[in-house]
């Protein structure tokens, strides 16, 4: 390692550097006469002046710099350098990080050249014929001072002022270099992202000064628990990262555990006892193969760690990668899939309990793909997360109403039931979008029932009342879906403009033979009837469940007993052949 002027732990240069620090001065490329002349000038001038070394060319100069760490170099602008690179450029290339102070002595005044010298990294220059002792001495001090300021600037650009850790820029830079090295030499490394849980209240309750001290303490915990070859960084507010070099998964987990244990040990700040909890996510190279992937894996692992109350950190594993890659792919393609009509609806009949006459269809969404299966609840959750609720419902209404219109033309008359998620249920745009689609396909509003899950209804009961009343006034019917799973308040049930209760399928699937359960279904059915509602039994799969639903007084039945939901593609007969036991309403 070169011993040139180095920053201390905080990155600042020691002040003594400005006073030459007892280190030699190096003349590069001058002949003997010039060396003797300048030496004489300087030694006769300053009292604190260091010893002087000389190098005839840049190659020897580089060696001397490595060995003696001079306080400043004085370079003859005509000094011989390797072909294609000026001596100054060679110096800067070799000691890029150190910002070594350099003064260039020029043979004659040349504005272009002096500008180019400064551009190449000389801190100062002087015309040889004007090189008096005070001028030369002044140029030296100037070069050292400028180099010091440049180092400070570099430090502020690369380090976090509060904690002295690397900042985001420098960490990204190191990460890129480390990954390049790992790739080339087949090495491993890890990136750990650490987040203090609920840090904000500390600032709010005790003030920012205490908050800052807490962050400094966290930085110390991190610094003390990784090796000096690792790179701890503060990414902003209460988020930290550490780049761990040459570690496998196991070691990276051990280090993370040590860091988290240190952070979570109680400590004192300004007389206050502080206890923190922290979460961390770990990404490992080569499982993550690029800077971008390292950051994403670490972030995702942190998200998983925060979500799971049982663990402090998560190591992003192969299995996580498979799940995450699938999700990324789906999320990237979903908007386009909606736009291009790649989603599909399947329809499941709902029949009367008395004689199994077809009454309604429930439309259920699907995303048919060759690579992955996507469940309906996953699809709906993704649509919500990606803010695609509006375009999705536009597609849903158009598709479902278009299908009902097509079946109507084949003289099949039945209502259509559509599931509406929490977010959309409370948005004002639903009424407009649904109305436009009804008009376009000439569907009377009372042929459409909106199914809203019980838990959704109970999120904001007052708003539900207002919005659903608006939709109901337009003629649409409203059903409570999955009834029995959402702890409804009876008071609100009576205020909501409801038409139908769908008793959740779990009641029928799990407990067809359970006497207490039967009593619950009976009571729910009686309650629904007393409010004037129709009751649908969901999840009727077997003869036993069918009997139960009928005995407790359900009005309508839906389930695999009659058939699974099916795509409508083609004409009515090709759809209806999948179902059995169903009577078609008389035309
Ligand atoms: P849900 O609204 O309660 O729909 C009924 C679900 O039960 C459907 O599952 C259906 O295939 C299934 N099912 C019907 N009969 C039986 C049976 O006899 N046994 C069993 N085990 N299951 C039966 P699917 O299609 O997977 O949908 C699941 C949930 O996803 C739906 O529950 C609904 O909450 C949601 N979903 C589906 N499509 C949409 C949609 O377009 N919008 C919204 N917001 N949610 C949807
Ligand atoms: Mg439903
Ligand atoms: Mg349901």
Task: Report on the architecture of this protein.
This protein is of the alpha/beta class. It has 3 domains: 15-157, Rossmann fold (3-Layer(aba) Sandwich); 168-316, Alpha-Beta Plaits (2-Layer Sandwich); 340-576, Alpha-Beta Barrel (TIM Barrel). Helix content is 47%, strand content 19%. The strands form 4 sheets. It has an 8-stranded mixed β-barrel with strand order 13-14-15-16-17-18-19-20, surrounded by 5 helices. A 5-stranded parallel β-sheet has the order 2-1-3-4-5, with helices on both faces. Helix 7 (200-206) packs across helix 8 (208-224), helix 8 (208-224) runs antiparallel to helix 9 (249-264) and helix 13 packs parallel to helix 15 (429-441). The radius of gyration is 38 Å and the shape is elongated. Residues 1-18 have low confidence and may be disordered. The site of ligand C2E has 24 residues, from strand 14, helix 12, strand 15, strand 17 and helix 19. One magnesium ion binds next to strand 17.
Outline of the structure:
This protein is of the alpha/beta class. The longest helix is centred in the N-terminal third of the chain and has 26 residues, at 133-158. It is elongated, with a radius of gyration of 38 Å.
Give me some keywords for this one.
587 residues; single chain; elongated; 8-stranded mixed barrel; TIM Barrel; disordered N terminus; binds magnesium ion
- Global Rg: 38 Å
Question: How would you characterize the largest beta sheet?
Answer: 8 strands, mixed, barrel
Shape label: elongated
Question: What is the number of independent domains?
Answer: 3
Mean pLDDT: 90
CATH architecture of the largest domain: Alpha-Beta Barrel
- Quick one: CATH superfamily of the largest domain? EAL domain
Percentage of residues in DSSP E strands: 15-25%
Which molecules are bound in this entry? ligand C2E, magnesium ion
Number of strands: 21
Measured distance between first and last alpha carbons:
93 Å
Strand arrangement in the largest pleated sheet: 13-14-15-16-17-18-19-20
Unreliable parts? 1-18
- Helical content class: 40-55%
Number of helices: 22
Judged by helices, strands and strand pairing, the structural class is: alpha/beta
CATH class annotation of the largest domain: Alpha Beta
Query: Which fold does the CATH topology of the largest domain refer to?
Result: TIM Barrel
